[in-house]
Amino acid sequence: MKRRTLLQVGAGLAAAAFTAPLFGNSGRIITNTPGGPVKISLAQWSLHRQLRSGALKVLDFPIKARKAFAIDAVEYVNQFFADKARDQNFLSALKARAIDHGVKSLLIMVDAEGDLGNPNASERQLAVENHFQWVEAAKYLGCHSIRVNAGGQGSSREVSSACRDGLRALSEFALDFDINIVVENHGGYSSNGLWLSQLLQSVDMPNCGSLPDFGNFGDYDRYLGVEQLMPFARGISAKSFSFDKRGNETNTDFARMLRIIQKAGYKGYIGIEYEGAGDEDWGIKATKELLLRLARQGDLYSE
Q1: Cβ count near 303 (within 10 Å)
Q2: Is residue 91 exposed (0-12), middle (13-18) or buried (19+ Cβ within 10 Å)?
Q3: Which of 214, 300, 218 is nearest to 263 (CA)?
Q4: pLDDT tens track for 213-252
Q5: Residues near 91 by Cβ (< 8 Å), separated by ≥ 6?
Q6: Containing H/E element for 182?
Q7: Domain boundaries defined on the chain
Q8: What share of the chain is helix, strand, coil (3-state, %, to 5)?
Q9: Structurally, what CATH architecture does the domain formed by 35-296 represent?
Q10: Residue 11 has pLDDT above 50, yes or no
């Protein structure tokens, strides 16, 4: 397949930082639900209890996103179909259901395929190759990215150096598929926004970016962390747990986060990732309503 670069980047850090809006495989800005003031997607993890119990079938996830929540873009999690990366029948069915219901497949969140920051070169290479199948699956489904983790054992410098090599090798492979490799702050050193932003800068690949998550920062300042990762952002994970009587999330100041996102010039999708207890459907709807309310108040993403 002929190699094509996903994004046009100029010289210097400003260009490498990717302050431009999120792009799809066609190179055109991804469209939003008609009339919507903000692009909202749904992370599959938001329904993890229903999926694990069997109350919701994996293939029905795009259908539920559209019918239950009026959301037209989804983010898959490989944990729910870990053995299906090369199952053509499964992928064809999933793709068809998404297309039939007008749902855009944005990315696959990939876990449990080895540490891309393993200091051992051979084990790191195995981890890189384990991710190849998900790059191919993402391409087939019409996604623009796979989300990976920057994990490994050792000092921060050792893991950063190993992650740089692992991410660069995976990104090089993914270029031929027009797929982005995006890293989430997801535990370990990656929960430090400065560490992760410096890592992404060092990778220096046009298709390697970030997926800032409102949570997952541990003791690190989440607002500073998101701000540091926004220059590289190819997606946003709006993590939510609980809400007060006024409908505001109790762990994260969503209004403050949206101001950071807006200031960065980001115009892509914001993914709902509800992790609270109780009714998952209710939590997803509450998160969506909060995002829409704040967007209306702040006139975010208006043309």
Answers
A1: 4
A2: middle
A3: 300
A4: 999 999 999 999 999 999 999 999 999 999 999 999 999 9
A5: 84, 137, 140, 141
A6: strand 180-184
A7: 35-296
A8: 45, 15, 40
A9: Alpha-Beta Barrel (3.20)
A10: no
